[in-house]
Amino acid sequence: MSKMMARPTRTGLTKALVFIGLILGALFAGLPVLWMFASSFKSNTEIFAYPPRLVDSSFSFTAYTTVLGDPQQRRFFFNSYLISGLVTLFTLIVGTLAGYSFSRYDFKFKRFLNLVIIGVQSVPPITLMIPYFGLIVWLQLYNSYGALILTYMVFTLPYAIIMMTGYFNTLPRELDEAVMIDGGSSFVVLWKILVPISLPGIVSVGVYTFMLAWNEFLFALTLTKTNDMRTVPIGIQLLMGQHSFEWNQMLAMSVLGSLPVLILFLVSQRYFIAGMAAGSIKG
Amino acid sequence: MAKISISNETQNLTWQRMKRQAVPFAYLSPTLLLLAVLSFIPIATVVYYSLMNNVIITKDPPSFVGLDNYVKILSDKNFFNALGNTLFFAIASVIAHFVLGLLFAMLLNSKVVGPVTKSLFRVIYILPWVFTASIIAVLWRLLLYPNGVVNYFMLGAGFSTEPIEWLSSRQLALPTVTFINIWSGYPFYMVSFLAGLQGISEDLYEAGKIDGASGIQLFRFITLPQLKPVIISLAMLDFIWTTHQFTLIWMTTGGGPVRATEMLSTFTYKLAFTSYEFSLASTTAMLILALSLFVGVFYVRNQRSANE
């Protein structure tokens, strides 16, 4: 009797506690982002107005039109899209080929190479920065798209290979054999069978790769020099370095700079989270 | 007729075997080329630089100096200051990421929450993760500005009588950048723990309940042990990545005030591109690599045992 009475109140209490926890957590995670978003619509003088208000009378899209109207800023965005897009494309091609090799073949040094690829992920970018500077100058790629596309692959590729190997490992080899018996080459197996089936995995690897490339800062800072080669993160830093802080422009640019990643993430989050879970931890 | 076809078949088999040995390397060739150019050669170069003087931008020709650069760096108290800051930053971040990530994952995994509410909260919780470090820097500089919104509430609630200089006080700068890093990094854990929690069989909990285990006991003896492999991988990977963090520091404090938030990464960057001491910068770069590889070896070992 007492047990039956206690049950509902206890679950009620748990429920209340969980919801309080969830809301506190959402405030912790979401409020700073909301504040940034709201402030990007304020005028520069109202951003630190006292008392602070989420939305005030200075609400306008001026900061956005200024940023988007400036050819310099538009160039930052163009560069970021181009570089991240190409890095994603190349990483997916190279990573899929390597993942196929690791998943379907046994060969000498396979274990060793696998370990090297996992190990490359722990090499600090700052260690690579100095030799990259020399390498890129030597390759005559300094201050070019090629410099960034090439160097970004050092951190996008290992992840892509590990993930793709994992996906292909989940697909039965009988699929390959069926194609092989029909006279298909190994490349046909990959291109016609494995790639279409693992498209969700490829999408999630692609999204993550794009995010990594879009967010990269250190190599973009050291391997490019002129403003027409700079990317969005560096563009934001350049705005910060100016004498008078154009806060609202900086915030508008930050919001615009987060949009592609946010949209990609929201669209593909189901694949993405499943992919993360399947590959990143187990390797 | 039959003979021909048999010999054809054996020929075919030898051919296939040879092809089978070459094919995996053909598929791997772009990767191997990229890894050589982007990883092995640069690391060899940085080892070489660290043993030389006058490299990259110099008037004099390079000269071999042996371990002199290492002696110089290892007797520099600024290097140890940066090392200490980096360790504090990384260890505090890893612990807080773990706690917050697990807490949020368990809240989201709770059975009392409906699926729609759950996915809404999940998106909000992941938000900090989708922002790049330079945007996170802008965001928190806005919030923590002396006349900004955080100080408004600190003053209003009576925690302080004057605006707090979060990022430009020598005492507060390091805890503040660590807090920012905690805020931006926990979702990675949360997402992984969510997947991990969903993988724990309900039967285990049922069995535990039948044995009369309390909620805390269920957590301690079922949830934590089941998540252990994930926890270890995440903590090591996060530790390595956090010790590499450059952008966030560079865009919030630049390592200041007066080296209060100087990390190994900013220390190395300044040696290279502010002082043009590329040899010394290569030396610290090697020491950071050694630290990362030390943890990395454990990470690889752990991954391998998880795979087998």
Give a description of the structure.
The complex is a heterodimer of chains A (283) and B (308). By secondary structure, chain A is mainly α. Chain A has one domain: MetI-like (MetI-like fold). Chain A is 77% helix and 0% strand. The longest helix of chain A is centred in the first third of the chain and has 38 residues. Chain A starts with a helix and ends with a helix. The N terminus and C terminus of chain A are likely disordered. Chain B folds into two domains: 49 residues; 236 residues, MetI-like fold. The two termini of chain B are 48 Å apart. Chains A and B meet through helix 1, helix 3, helix 4, helix 5 and helix 6 of A and helix 1, helix 3, helix 4, helix 5 and helix 7 of B.
Q: What does the secondary structure layout of this molecule look like, with pairings?
A:
The complex is a heterodimer of chains A (283) and B (308).
Chain A: H1 2-39, H2 62-69, H3 71-104, H4 110-120, H5 125-138, H6 145-170, H7 174-181, H8 186-197, H9 199-215, H10 218-223, H11 232-241, H12 247-280
Helix pairs in contact in A: 2-12, 3-6, 3-9, 4-6, 6-9, 6-12, 7-8, 9-12, 11-12
Chain B: H1 2-50, E1 52-53, E2 63-64, H2 68-74, H3 77-109, H4 115-130, H5 133-144, H6 149-156, H7 173-198, H8 202-210, H9 215-244, H10 247-252, H11 264-273, H12 278-307
Antiparallel strand pairs in B: 1-2
Helix pairs in contact in B: 1-12, 2-12, 3-7, 3-9, 4-7, 7-9, 9-12, 11-12
Report the mean per-residue pLDDT of chain A as an integer: 84
Radius of gyration of chain A: 24 Å
The helicity of chain B comes to: over 70%
Number of strands of chain B: 2
- Report the major sheet of chain B: 2 strands, antiparallel
CATH H-level superfamily of the largest domain in chain B: MetI-like
- What Rg of chain B do the Cα atoms give? 26 Å
**How would you name the CATH homologous superfamily of chain A?**
MetI-like
Spatial gap, N to C terminus of chain A:
51 Å
Pattern of helices and strands of chain B: HEEHHHHHHHHHHH
- Work out the largest interface and the residue count of each chain: A-B, 94 and 95 residues
Beta content of chain A comes to under 5%
Structural class of chain B: mainly alpha
* CATH level-1 class of chain A: Mainly Alpha
What does the overall shape of chain B look like?
Answer: flat
Number of domains of chain A: 1
Beta-strand fraction estimate of chain B = under 5%
Give me the CATH architecture of chain A, please.
Orthogonal Bundle
